[in-house]
Specification:
72% helix, mainly alpha, 11 helices, 313 residues
Amino acid sequence: MTEILRELRVFWIDGRRIERVAYLVGAVLLLSGLAHLGVQAIAGGPWEGPVSWRKPTTFGLSFGLTVISVTWVASFLRMPERLRLALLGGFLLASVAEVGLITAQAWRRVPSHFNFETSFDTGVSMVLAAGGGVLFVVLGALFAQSLKPQPGLDPELRLGIRLGLGALLAGLVIGGIMIGIGTTMARGGDPRGAYHGAGVFKLAHAVGLHGIAVLPGLAWLSGVGGQTRSGLGGQALSGLGGRPTPRRTVLRTGTVGYLGLLGCAMLVGAQGRLTILSVLGLAVAGLVLISALLQAFAAARVARPAGAGVPVR
Protein backbone atom coordinates (compact mmCIF):
# COMPACT_ATOMS: atom_id res chain seq x y z
CA MET A 1 0.00 0.00 0.00
CA THR A 2 2.90 2.33 0.77
CA GLU A 3 4.30 1.72 -2.70
CA ILE A 4 0.92 2.50 -4.27
CA LEU A 5 0.60 5.79 -2.38
CA ARG A 6 4.18 6.72 -3.25
CA GLU A 7 3.61 6.16 -6.95
CA LEU A 8 0.31 8.05 -6.90
CA ARG A 9 2.09 10.98 -5.26
CA VAL A 10 4.44 11.14 -8.25
CA PHE A 11 1.53 12.04 -10.51
CA TRP A 12 1.00 15.21 -8.48
CA ILE A 13 4.63 16.12 -7.90
CA ASP A 14 5.70 15.59 -11.53
CA GLY A 15 2.40 16.67 -13.06
CA ARG A 16 2.08 19.40 -15.65
CA ARG A 17 0.33 22.62 -14.62
CA ILE A 18 -2.88 21.70 -16.46
CA GLU A 19 -2.85 18.28 -14.79
CA ARG A 20 -2.48 19.77 -11.31
CA VAL A 21 -5.30 22.19 -12.05
CA ALA A 22 -7.43 19.29 -13.23
CA TYR A 23 -6.71 17.23 -10.11
CA LEU A 24 -7.71 20.23 -7.96
CA VAL A 25 -10.90 20.77 -9.97
CA GLY A 26 -11.74 17.08 -9.62
CA ALA A 27 -11.21 17.33 -5.85
CA VAL A 28 -13.49 20.38 -5.65
CA LEU A 29 -16.22 18.57 -7.60
CA LEU A 30 -15.92 15.57 -5.27
CA LEU A 31 -16.22 17.85 -2.24
CA SER A 32 -19.24 19.54 -3.81
CA GLY A 33 -20.91 16.15 -4.21
CA LEU A 34 -20.16 15.21 -0.60
CA ALA A 35 -21.41 18.60 0.63
CA HIS A 36 -24.73 18.11 -1.13
CA LEU A 37 -24.99 14.64 0.35
CA GLY A 38 -24.76 16.44 3.70
CA VAL A 39 -27.49 18.85 2.60
CA GLN A 40 -29.68 15.87 1.74
CA ALA A 41 -29.05 14.36 5.18
CA ILE A 42 -29.87 17.62 6.98
CA ALA A 43 -32.64 19.07 4.83
CA GLY A 44 -34.22 15.77 3.85
CA GLY A 45 -36.59 15.50 0.92
CA PRO A 46 -36.92 12.93 -1.87
CA TRP A 47 -33.80 11.24 -3.22
CA GLU A 48 -35.40 10.36 -6.56
CA GLY A 49 -37.34 12.62 -8.91
CA PRO A 50 -36.55 15.64 -11.09
CA VAL A 51 -35.97 17.97 -8.11
CA SER A 52 -33.76 16.53 -5.38
CA TRP A 53 -30.33 16.85 -3.83
CA ARG A 54 -29.40 13.58 -5.51
CA LYS A 55 -28.40 15.30 -8.74
CA PRO A 56 -25.76 17.72 -7.38
CA THR A 57 -24.53 14.87 -5.18
CA THR A 58 -24.16 12.21 -7.85
CA PHE A 59 -23.02 14.58 -10.60
CA GLY A 60 -20.41 16.16 -8.32
CA LEU A 61 -19.03 12.79 -7.25
CA SER A 62 -19.20 11.28 -10.72
CA PHE A 63 -17.63 14.21 -12.56
CA GLY A 64 -15.00 14.64 -9.85
CA LEU A 65 -13.87 11.04 -10.18
CA THR A 66 -14.02 11.20 -13.97
CA VAL A 67 -11.97 14.41 -14.18
CA ILE A 68 -9.26 12.90 -12.00
CA SER A 69 -9.33 9.59 -13.90
CA VAL A 70 -9.19 11.14 -17.38
CA THR A 71 -6.36 13.48 -16.37
CA TRP A 72 -4.42 10.58 -14.89
CA VAL A 73 -4.94 8.40 -17.97
CA ALA A 74 -3.99 11.22 -20.35
CA SER A 75 -0.68 11.67 -18.51
CA PHE A 76 0.49 8.34 -19.97
CA LEU A 77 -0.24 9.33 -23.58
CA ARG A 78 2.27 10.96 -25.87
CA MET A 79 0.74 13.92 -27.73
CA PRO A 80 1.64 17.54 -28.59
CA GLU A 81 1.52 19.65 -25.45
CA ARG A 82 -0.76 22.24 -27.04
CA LEU A 83 -3.21 19.48 -27.92
CA ARG A 84 -3.05 18.12 -24.36
CA LEU A 85 -3.74 21.60 -22.97
CA ALA A 86 -6.66 22.14 -25.35
CA LEU A 87 -8.25 18.74 -24.66
CA LEU A 88 -7.90 18.84 -20.89
CA GLY A 89 -8.90 22.52 -20.79
CA GLY A 90 -12.05 21.87 -22.82
CA PHE A 91 -12.83 18.83 -20.71
CA LEU A 92 -12.53 20.84 -17.49
CA LEU A 93 -14.70 23.70 -18.74
CA ALA A 94 -17.46 21.35 -19.90
CA SER A 95 -17.33 19.33 -16.67
CA VAL A 96 -17.50 22.41 -14.41
CA ALA A 97 -20.35 23.85 -16.50
CA GLU A 98 -22.34 20.60 -16.24
CA VAL A 99 -21.98 20.29 -12.47
CA GLY A 100 -22.39 24.03 -11.89
CA LEU A 101 -25.65 24.33 -13.82
CA ILE A 102 -27.12 21.17 -12.31
CA THR A 103 -26.22 22.42 -8.83
CA ALA A 104 -27.68 25.88 -9.51
CA GLN A 105 -30.98 24.36 -10.67
CA ALA A 106 -31.11 22.16 -7.57
CA TRP A 107 -30.80 25.24 -5.35
CA ARG A 108 -33.49 26.96 -7.41
CA ARG A 109 -35.64 23.86 -6.75
CA VAL A 110 -36.40 23.31 -10.41
CA PRO A 111 -35.47 20.39 -12.71
CA SER A 112 -32.13 20.67 -14.47
CA HIS A 113 -32.93 18.37 -17.39
CA PHE A 114 -35.90 18.34 -19.76
CA ASN A 115 -37.09 21.63 -18.28
CA PHE A 116 -38.54 23.99 -20.87
CA GLU A 117 -40.82 26.00 -18.58
CA THR A 118 -38.96 29.31 -18.99
CA SER A 119 -36.41 30.67 -21.44
CA PHE A 120 -33.71 30.42 -18.75
CA ASP A 121 -34.56 26.80 -17.94
CA THR A 122 -34.64 25.97 -21.64
CA GLY A 123 -31.22 27.57 -22.04
CA VAL A 124 -29.85 25.49 -19.15
CA SER A 125 -31.19 22.28 -20.66
CA MET A 126 -29.66 23.13 -24.03
CA VAL A 127 -26.28 24.04 -22.52
CA LEU A 128 -26.24 20.75 -20.61
CA ALA A 129 -26.94 18.85 -23.82
CA ALA A 130 -24.28 20.82 -25.69
CA GLY A 131 -21.81 20.14 -22.87
CA GLY A 132 -22.32 16.45 -23.39
CA GLY A 133 -21.42 16.93 -27.03
CA VAL A 134 -18.23 18.78 -26.10
CA LEU A 135 -17.28 15.97 -23.72
CA PHE A 136 -17.79 13.39 -26.46
CA VAL A 137 -15.60 15.29 -28.94
CA VAL A 138 -12.80 15.88 -26.41
CA LEU A 139 -12.79 12.34 -25.08
CA GLY A 140 -13.08 10.94 -28.59
CA ALA A 141 -9.92 12.85 -29.46
CA LEU A 142 -8.15 11.37 -26.43
CA PHE A 143 -9.30 7.90 -27.47
CA ALA A 144 -7.88 8.51 -30.94
CA GLN A 145 -4.56 9.51 -29.36
CA SER A 146 -4.53 6.29 -27.33
CA LEU A 147 -4.79 4.26 -30.56
CA LYS A 148 -1.53 5.74 -31.83
CA PRO A 149 1.81 4.04 -31.01
CA GLN A 150 2.84 4.79 -27.43
CA PRO A 151 6.56 3.92 -27.09
CA GLY A 152 7.56 2.87 -23.58
CA LEU A 153 4.02 2.19 -22.40
CA ASP A 154 3.60 -1.46 -21.46
CA PRO A 155 0.99 -3.47 -23.42
CA GLU A 156 -1.35 -4.13 -20.49
CA LEU A 157 -1.58 -0.48 -19.45
CA ARG A 158 -1.94 0.64 -23.07
CA LEU A 159 -4.83 -1.80 -23.58
CA GLY A 160 -6.40 -0.82 -20.26
CA ILE A 161 -6.34 2.85 -21.28
CA ARG A 162 -7.94 2.10 -24.64
CA LEU A 163 -10.64 -0.04 -23.03
CA GLY A 164 -11.29 2.59 -20.35
CA LEU A 165 -11.65 5.45 -22.83
CA GLY A 166 -13.86 3.28 -25.02
CA ALA A 167 -16.08 2.49 -22.04
CA LEU A 168 -16.27 6.19 -21.16
CA LEU A 169 -17.40 7.02 -24.69
CA ALA A 170 -20.01 4.24 -24.48
CA GLY A 171 -21.28 5.82 -21.25
CA LEU A 172 -21.59 9.18 -23.01
CA VAL A 173 -23.50 7.56 -25.88
CA ILE A 174 -25.92 6.06 -23.33
CA GLY A 175 -26.26 9.52 -21.78
CA GLY A 176 -27.07 10.94 -25.20
CA ILE A 177 -29.77 8.31 -25.66
CA MET A 178 -31.21 9.26 -22.28
CA ILE A 179 -31.31 12.93 -23.26
CA GLY A 180 -32.99 12.06 -26.56
CA ILE A 181 -35.67 9.96 -24.84
CA GLY A 182 -36.35 12.56 -22.17
CA THR A 183 -36.40 15.55 -24.52
CA THR A 184 -38.82 13.82 -26.89
CA MET A 185 -41.19 12.93 -24.07
CA ALA A 186 -40.96 16.35 -22.40
CA ARG A 187 -41.65 18.25 -25.63
CA GLY A 188 -44.43 15.78 -26.35
CA GLY A 189 -46.29 16.92 -23.24
CA ASP A 190 -45.15 14.33 -20.71
CA PRO A 191 -42.42 16.02 -18.63
CA ARG A 192 -42.89 13.73 -15.62
CA GLY A 193 -42.69 10.63 -17.79
CA ALA A 194 -39.50 12.02 -19.36
CA TYR A 195 -37.56 11.55 -16.14
CA HIS A 196 -38.66 7.95 -15.75
CA GLY A 197 -38.19 7.12 -19.43
CA ALA A 198 -34.64 8.44 -19.44
CA GLY A 199 -33.83 7.41 -15.88
CA VAL A 200 -34.07 3.67 -16.48
CA PHE A 201 -30.62 3.84 -18.10
CA LYS A 202 -28.97 5.69 -15.19
CA LEU A 203 -27.15 2.58 -13.98
CA ALA A 204 -25.79 1.73 -17.44
CA HIS A 205 -24.73 5.36 -17.92
CA ALA A 206 -22.82 5.36 -14.62
CA VAL A 207 -21.14 1.99 -15.24
CA GLY A 208 -19.98 3.12 -18.68
CA LEU A 209 -18.56 6.42 -17.44
CA HIS A 210 -16.44 4.87 -14.71
CA GLY A 211 -14.81 2.25 -16.86
CA ILE A 212 -12.12 4.93 -17.26
CA ALA A 213 -11.18 4.46 -13.60
CA VAL A 214 -11.66 0.69 -13.38
CA LEU A 215 -9.86 -0.80 -16.38
CA PRO A 216 -6.72 1.39 -16.59
CA GLY A 217 -6.64 1.31 -12.79
CA LEU A 218 -6.49 -2.49 -12.69
CA ALA A 219 -3.77 -2.56 -15.38
CA TRP A 220 -1.68 0.01 -13.49
CA LEU A 221 -2.25 -1.41 -10.01
CA SER A 222 -1.16 -4.91 -11.02
CA GLY A 223 2.25 -3.52 -12.02
CA VAL A 224 2.97 -1.29 -9.03
CA GLY A 225 6.37 -1.90 -7.52
CA GLY A 226 7.57 -4.17 -10.30
CA GLN A 227 11.29 -4.37 -11.02
CA THR A 228 12.88 -5.01 -14.38
CA ARG A 229 14.83 -8.25 -14.45
CA SER A 230 18.35 -8.09 -15.81
CA GLY A 231 19.17 -10.07 -18.89
CA LEU A 232 15.81 -9.56 -20.54
CA GLY A 233 16.74 -6.60 -22.68
CA GLY A 234 14.88 -4.18 -20.42
CA GLN A 235 11.63 -6.10 -20.80
CA ALA A 236 9.56 -7.52 -17.99
CA LEU A 237 8.61 -11.16 -17.79
CA SER A 238 5.61 -11.17 -20.12
CA GLY A 239 4.12 -14.37 -21.33
CA LEU A 240 7.28 -16.40 -21.76
CA GLY A 241 6.44 -19.56 -23.60
CA GLY A 242 3.11 -18.08 -24.72
CA ARG A 243 1.66 -18.09 -21.21
CA PRO A 244 -0.28 -15.01 -20.10
CA THR A 245 1.30 -12.87 -17.38
CA PRO A 246 -0.51 -12.21 -14.10
CA ARG A 247 -1.08 -8.61 -15.25
CA ARG A 248 -2.71 -9.78 -18.45
CA THR A 249 -4.89 -12.18 -16.49
CA VAL A 250 -5.94 -9.34 -14.20
CA LEU A 251 -6.95 -7.17 -17.14
CA ARG A 252 -8.83 -10.00 -18.82
CA THR A 253 -10.70 -10.84 -15.64
CA GLY A 254 -11.50 -7.19 -14.98
CA THR A 255 -12.71 -6.66 -18.55
CA VAL A 256 -15.00 -9.70 -18.37
CA GLY A 257 -16.45 -8.50 -15.06
CA TYR A 258 -16.84 -4.94 -16.27
CA LEU A 259 -18.53 -5.93 -19.54
CA GLY A 260 -20.83 -8.24 -17.58
CA LEU A 261 -21.73 -5.36 -15.28
CA LEU A 262 -22.40 -3.04 -18.22
CA GLY A 263 -24.47 -5.68 -20.02
CA CYS A 264 -26.62 -6.32 -16.96
CA ALA A 265 -27.06 -2.58 -16.42
CA MET A 266 -28.26 -2.24 -20.02
CA LEU A 267 -30.68 -5.12 -19.38
CA VAL A 268 -32.08 -3.22 -16.40
CA GLY A 269 -32.60 -0.19 -18.65
CA ALA A 270 -34.24 -2.20 -21.42
CA GLN A 271 -36.61 -3.90 -18.97
CA GLY A 272 -37.23 -0.69 -17.04
CA ARG A 273 -36.74 -2.38 -13.67
CA LEU A 274 -34.59 -4.75 -11.69
CA THR A 275 -35.39 -8.44 -12.10
CA ILE A 276 -34.01 -11.52 -10.40
CA LEU A 277 -31.97 -12.29 -13.52
CA SER A 278 -30.43 -8.83 -13.71
CA VAL A 279 -29.69 -8.73 -9.97
CA LEU A 280 -27.94 -12.11 -10.17
CA GLY A 281 -26.01 -10.96 -13.21
CA LEU A 282 -24.90 -7.75 -11.47
CA ALA A 283 -23.83 -9.72 -8.41
CA VAL A 284 -21.78 -12.23 -10.42
CA ALA A 285 -20.14 -9.49 -12.51
CA GLY A 286 -19.36 -7.55 -9.34
CA LEU A 287 -17.69 -10.61 -7.79
CA VAL A 288 -15.60 -11.06 -10.93
CA LEU A 289 -14.45 -7.43 -10.68
CA ILE A 290 -13.58 -7.89 -7.01
CA SER A 291 -11.61 -10.99 -7.99
CA ALA A 292 -9.69 -8.93 -10.55
CA LEU A 293 -8.90 -6.31 -7.89
CA LEU A 294 -7.55 -8.98 -5.53
CA GLN A 295 -5.50 -10.44 -8.38
CA ALA A 296 -4.14 -6.97 -9.13
CA PHE A 297 -2.83 -6.60 -5.57
CA ALA A 298 -1.34 -10.09 -5.76
CA ALA A 299 0.38 -9.31 -9.07
CA ALA A 300 1.65 -5.91 -7.97
CA ARG A 301 5.18 -7.22 -7.49
CA VAL A 302 5.43 -8.86 -10.93
CA ALA A 303 8.14 -7.19 -13.04
CA ARG A 304 7.36 -4.59 -15.66
CA PRO A 305 9.51 -2.49 -18.00
CA ALA A 306 11.25 0.36 -16.22
CA GLY A 307 9.27 3.57 -16.72
CA ALA A 308 6.40 1.79 -18.46
CA GLY A 309 3.92 2.73 -15.76
CA VAL A 310 4.88 6.36 -15.24
CA PRO A 311 3.43 9.47 -16.90
CA VAL A 312 4.96 10.81 -20.10
CA ARG A 313 6.94 14.02 -19.67
